[in-house]
Amino acid sequence: MRIKTYSSDLSAKSWQVIKNILPVKRKSKWDLSEIVNAIFYLTKNGCVWRDIPGEFPPWQTVYWYYRQWVKDGTWDNINRLLIANNRMMEDKEWQPTTAIIDSQTTKNTSTST
Questions:
Q1: Which residues of 32-59 are buried (b: 16+ CB within 10 A; e: fewer)?
Q2: What's the CA angle centered on 48, arms 15 and 55, to 5 degrees?
Q3: How far, CA to CA in Å, does 11 sit from each of 32, 54, 70, 93, 113?
Q4: Cβ(36)–Cβ(10) under 8 Å?
Q5: Residue 10 contacts by C-beta under 8 Å, 6 or more apart in sequence?
Q6: How far apart are CA 66 and CA 53, in angstroms?
């Protein structure tokens, strides 16, 4: 159990939402929530795998789980589940129904109509 917390750490409520969709194919000495937190730390801070703080599981272990979850689609499922959960907490539909594209932000040529 680590003592230091990071802004990228999952809340206990978010962990409860996703823990049941994580495939567990082998017994690990590392807590899956710590592996997920290490992946979130890496993506938030934009560091390389070897620069994950020593308070997390070894970077090789974190990378192994990340690659497995990317290959089998688990990581996409986690993303969808957290987005849907966040939208429902804000009293919105779980999936967006409207998209707005602002034409003022796109570059145009002088000859386009």
A1: ebbbbbbbbbbeeeeeeeeebeeebbeb
A2: 50
A3: 14, 21, 22, 22, 50
A4: yes
A5: 18, 33, 36, 37, 40
A6: 16
Cα–Cα distance measured from residue 98 to residue 113, given in angstroms and rounded to the nearest whole number: 26
**CA 23 to chain centroid:** 16
**pTM: predicted TM-score of the whole model, two decimal places:** 0.73
Cβ neighbors of 3 (< 8 A, separation 6 or more) are: 55
CA atoms of 66 and 78, how far apart (whole Å) = 12
d(CA 40, CA 47): 11
Per-residue pLDDT of the chain (113 residues; tens, 9 = 90+): 677 889 999 888 888 888 888 887 777 889 999 999 999 999 999 999 999 999 999 999 999 999 999 999 998 988 888 888 788 877 877 676 677 776 666 666 666 55
